[in-house]
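Table S2 (text version). Query chain:
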Amino acid sequence: MKPQYFVAILFATSLYWMYLLYAPFLMGMVIAALLAISTSNIQNFFEKVLKSKFFAALISSFLLAVLFFVPLGYFLATLTIKLNSMDPVVFKNIEIFIREFLETPPDYLSFLKPFTDDMMKDVSVNSIASYVISFTGNIGSLSAGYLKNSFLVIVFYFFAQYNGGFVVDFLKRVVQMSVEETTLLAKELSSVMSVVFYSIIVNAMFQGILFGVAISFMGYNGLLFGIMYGFASLIPVVGGALMWLPFMLYEFSTGNSSNAIFIALYSIVVISVIADTFIKPLIIKEINLRLLKEDDAKMNELIIFFAIIAGLTTFGFWGMILGPAITAFFLTIMKLFEARTKECESRAEPS
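Corresponding structure-token output:
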């Protein structure tokens, strides 16, 4: 057996065992690496100010932890207090509203009457309270999973920021690509991920502010529910409905039909349609123009927009980072193939 074949077998075997060893952490490592790429400009700024890569990585990781943990911690603490202090009369009012709606639905929904009769048997104060408790438990378990994954991402993020330069230089030496090609790949991926990271934050804050301001005029905690809506907006298709639908039902149950209709129409028309569908691509475009220099690679904002949606749909919460990264990587590889094809064609032409 030739020595190079033996080395290749050893490499494949070690790669397989490395995958088995680190499989539970691969998603966190990938997300941390992509976040490190996205925020490389912040890391570079702290390095210049502090003259220390270690402390720069430490502060960058702390800021990311604040971004991840503080809003969620505030949300969980406030939500727990609200649910514990909620009057049981609220559940009774919701039950009465649902029963009246199912017993006498509007004329345009009268064809659903045979189905609503069966649903009536399951509607009660106890069932609603049980659903709320179950829903709270699901939020708690999801939040615990989110906190665990976020903690791992931040730990890996610190090491990615601290040792990222060494890893990138090592990969450049190992990968069979020219310096120009690896530089192009790293530059385009870094450019796209920076735009994605900041546009996601700005868009979530924008939608959260829109919802929080509207709900505060109705007497609710605008800060709490604005944060909740910002997180919910990251969930594809049903994200906003997870927030405004319970408000609509509650307002209907208390007899405030005008408030219920307003919050539903406002959330659908202003936030879901105008802000999320039309303004979101403009936010991405503006960040794309302001964040990147003229000589940096720019990806079309609509491609980034659909890549975020596709990533969220396929991979869940972290898909908003993975989707654009995969798309940017694919398009860059296509550019490299195009460049190599042109180079081969130019060599093949007779002189």
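Notes on Table S2: The radius of gyration is 26 Å. Residues 180-340 form one domain.
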